[in-house]
UniProtKB/TrEMBL annotation:
InterPro entries: P-loop_NTPase (IPR027417), Sulfotransfer_4 (IPR040632). This is Sulfotransferase family protein. SUPFAM superfamilies: P-loop containing nucleoside triphosphate hydrolases (SSF52540). Coiled coil: none annotated.
Length: 206
């Protein structure tokens, strides 16, 4: 199935809560890095593309998914937007300083953690994340500059009527208005706090 929703926001911009929200609104299954962590058999095509030079095959990478948020899919936002011209694009954002504080305690630590032999799938995720992020986010100054440049590039590239710039903490209303669906009678999801990320992805506990 083609993607209906393309998430262009960096990790640590509320993407896990957004994944859950899109699923509750009927736009699931939603691809997220958690899908690779929880389903190691799905890692291979991503690793083959980023680390092995395999041609980009979006149909394989997003097979079975109706929407996508978070890395690694967000790194392919431009290619996905071109391949699925009817899909809407959601750019999740947050205050740059708050984003760096969250990224530096979670994804950055994950990238720098030596995985034990029994965590081979997570090591493969590390490998391809290192390929597409490179050294762009190694320091606070460079990371925030890259974060802000990315937001500007997405806004410049995607037509305004196809794009929702979704600020962390905005709740259901702007998302539902953009997707033209009713606002649910329940709280917007709140997930993936820093401590939970560290426990599941760095300490490798379930």
């Amino acid at each position: 199935m083609p993607l209906d929703i393309i998430g262009a926001g960096f990790g640590r911009t509320g993407t896990d809560a957004l994944r859950q929200a899109l699923t509750e609104l009927g736009f699931g299954p939603c691809h997220h890095m958690h899908e690779l962590r929880d389903n190691p058999e799905k890692i291979g095509p991503w690793h083959d593309h980023f680390c092995g030079g395999a041609p980009l095959d979006l149909e394989t990478l997003f097979d079975g998914y109706r929407s996508q948020v978070d890395w690694p899919g967000a790194h392919l936002w431009r290619e996905s937007a071109e391949a699925y011209p009817d899909a809407k694009v959601i750019l999740s954002v947050r205050d740059p300083e708050a984003w760096w504080a969250s990224y530096s305690k979670t994804i950055k630590v994950f990238r720098e953690t030596e995985m034990p032999p029994e965590a081979a799938p997570m090591r493969k995720i590390q490998e391809f994340v290192d390929v597409f992020l490179g050294d762009r986010l190694d320091t606070k100054e460079r990371a925030i500059a890259d974060f802000e440049a990315h937001i500007a590039k997405v806004k410049e590239t995607i037509p305004a009527d196809r794009l929702l710039v979704y600020e962390l903490g905005s709740g259901w209303e702007p998302l539902c208005a953009f997707l033209d669906v009713p606002v649910p009678d329940r709280d917007y999801p709140h997930t993936n706090a820093t401590a939970a990320f560290q426990k599941r992805n760095i300490n490798l506990e379930t």
